[in-house]
Amino acid sequence: MDKSEKNPEQIQASDMHTMEQSAARMTRIQAKSLFDYNIFLIGFMGTGKSTVAAGLKDKLAMDQVETDAEIVRRQGMSIPDIFAEYGEVYFRNLESSILIELQKRKRTIVSCGGGIIVRKENTEHMKKNSRIVLLTAKPETVYERVRDDHSRPILNNNMNVAYISSLMEKRQPLYEAAADIIVATDGKNVSRICEEIISKLIAFDKSKTQ
Ligand code: S3P
Fold first, then answer.
1. Does residue 68 line the site of ligand 1, with CB under 6 A?
2. What's the whole-model pTM score?
3. Per DSSP, what are the bridge partners of residue 66?
4. Measuring from atom 15 of ligand 1, which residue has the nearest CA?
5. pLDDT in tens, the chain (210 residues)
6. Is 66 touching ligand 1 by the criterion CB < 6 Å?
7. CA dihedral angle for residue 36, residue 40, residue 46, residue 47, rounded to 10 degrees
């Protein structure tokens, strides 16, 4: 065989790569006309909001903001330090003012701190020019995902399934009241979760226009 010729397997592999690249490009192009609004990801701690937001940003070529990261950046302090020094109310005030500012943005994926729904007015701010996606996970799954992370003051002295379960139950009606669509994350990888979000959003938008 001529050296410049590729064997069939090589051709298949490079073709597959090109096909995958153009499929990804197509998704991004189509997505531009799909979602002309902001997408808020809400849900309990450890439901994967930040990771899923990064996955969606990639697939949809949208901007991405994380309320917790924005608070840390602006305050120049970690979240546990903000809670310890100024208290939870101060932290919640920062969350609310970031949400008000975000109303000016378009086509942005916002992953929110898990407690964003504790203030009713936050849900009202989020509902403007946006869709709200609720990510869920079982208390046991949350525990496995967050148990070794000490950056969440709400859980730091309560790192157990019973506490997670009771706080989740208390917050659940608020999460559900805010959500346009709900996606369970247990046992799924990021790509599958993103695809589920995209198809549920398309269905939700369709149902709105009918
Ligand atoms: C909180 C969730 C955290 C963070 C803060 C309070 C909560 O965000 O905003 O520690 O009250 O549920 P994550 O949901 O990203 O962990």
1. yes
2. 0.86
3. 111
4. 113
5. 444 455 555 556 666 666 666 665 665 555 556 798 999 999 999 999 999 999 999 999 899 999 999 999 999 999 999 999 999 999 999 999 999 999 899 999 999 999 999 999 999 999 988 999 999 999 999 999 999 999 999 999 999 999 999 999 999 999 999 999 999 999 999 999 999 999 999 999 999 887
6. no
7. -60
